[in-house]
Amino acid sequence: MSGVSVAEERAEILAAQRNDDSFATLWDELQWRGLVHVSTDPEALSELLEGESFTYYCGFDPTAPSLHLGNLVQLLLLRRLQLKGHKPLGLVGGSTGLIGDPRPTAERTLNSRETVAEWVTRLQGQVTRFLASDGENAVRLVNNLDWTAPLSAIDFLREVGKHFRVGTMLKKDAVAARLNSDEGISYTEFSYQVLQGFDFLELFRQYDCVLQSGGSDQWGNLTSGTDLIRKVEGRSAHAVGTPLITNADGTKFGKSEGNAIWLDPEMCSPYTFYQFWLNQADADVIDRLKVFTFLSRAEIEDYERQVAEEPFKRAAQKRLALEVTTLVHGAAAAQGAIDASEALFGRGDLAALDESTLRGAVSELPQVVLPPTAKFIARPITQLMVEAGLVKSAGEARRAIAQGGVYVNNAAVESEDRALEAADLLHGRFAVLRRGKKTLAGVVAAG
């Protein structure tokens, strides 16, 4: 999209999104896509979604400087409701982020107020990228620090705390898990569900917000809000818990070698992001298309057929990677990731890749790190191949070169004495070694 600003491209992406009118109701579509694991009242929610415009929300705590794939599930659910004409509130928790919801295993490390405030701003910017900011049902950002900070501890305990029963709080899954662990749970994290319940009450009062969504692991926190509204206001409110997405083998989805897949390109490059989706298993890819894309039921069912009949083509994975990378990082970044994938394996020009894309691609490879360019000394290719793990010995490296199977930046190495020169470094820092068709390593001059 040359010549198109980031804001214009984002607007075009949002404008192209649609719910699938082949379903009788939005609730039917949400269930088909696997976006509903638990809810307060399915029949009432289905009617609510088909009725007049209402306000709903999801909360995101700034416990990291970026949202991740689990948050993306919520953002896409918010967007589907917005497309139906309903009004989203994106809550970034400036107060709950100072505490953090209880993890199943250990107490969180508390971040400073300054850090949390910075992360609030960053996450607010990410939330607004996935929801329309104009029109009658434009997204509205809210921060729970606005209504918790003015309250004294005594006021909070009197006005909110008195409505919570300790016995009920102890039964919440996250709390129960921690109570049964060696770590235990602090009063700080134990009180998190009270704060989240208070959020829903305040949004109900201020905006007539009647629905909260979140992950199913947050169900206890979600229902703390619906219970509080019922006790204090005598009104009903709703909650929807999305399933925790796992792979077909039962492992947690959204992790890559132990690291979360972040939405911030500085924390997870578009190339890495694209490769994550491209590498989805056949058993998982159709479910991913349902949750993470706006492809229609008919399109997804066609990809399901292709997976069954021609899995070697990986058409569903390629479409998934393209769709989600474009959604999160834009069309240019998605195309850059595709170009990098092609170029790494000799089907494109590595020198044509921009520095950011090349850096992201090389970061995924085994690497040899050299001194900065200013101190660069030519290194034999055979030595670099050993250091990178492409071969076990210099002798094996020489034989591979003699057989014509070694490349530097996709150019064949023709001499066993060939050395890597400073001039070989793309963007002054990077080179790609390849043995055969698929075995790769990166060479990086330290910055």
Automatic annotation (TrEMBL):
It holds the Pfam family tRNA-synt_1b. Its EC number is 6.1.1.1. It comes from the Bacteria. A motif ('HIGH' region) lies at residues 62-71. L-tyrosine binds at Y57, Y192, Q196. Keywords: Aminoacyl-tRNA synthetase, ATP-binding, Cytoplasm, Ligase, Nucleotide-binding, Protein biosynthesis, RNA-binding. It is an enzyme of class 6 (ligase). ATP binds at K255. SMART domains: S4. One of its GO terms (molecular function) is tyrosine-tRNA ligase activity. The keyword Nucleotide-binding applies. A motif ('KMSKS' region) lies at residues 252-256. It is found in: Cytoplasm. Catalyzes the attachment of tyrosine to tRNA(Tyr) in a two-step reaction: tyrosine is first activated by ATP to form Tyr-AMP and then transferred to the acceptor end of tRNA(Tyr). Homodimer. Belongs to the class-I aminoacyl-tRNA synthetase family. TyrS type 1 subfamily. This is Tyrosine--tRNA ligase.
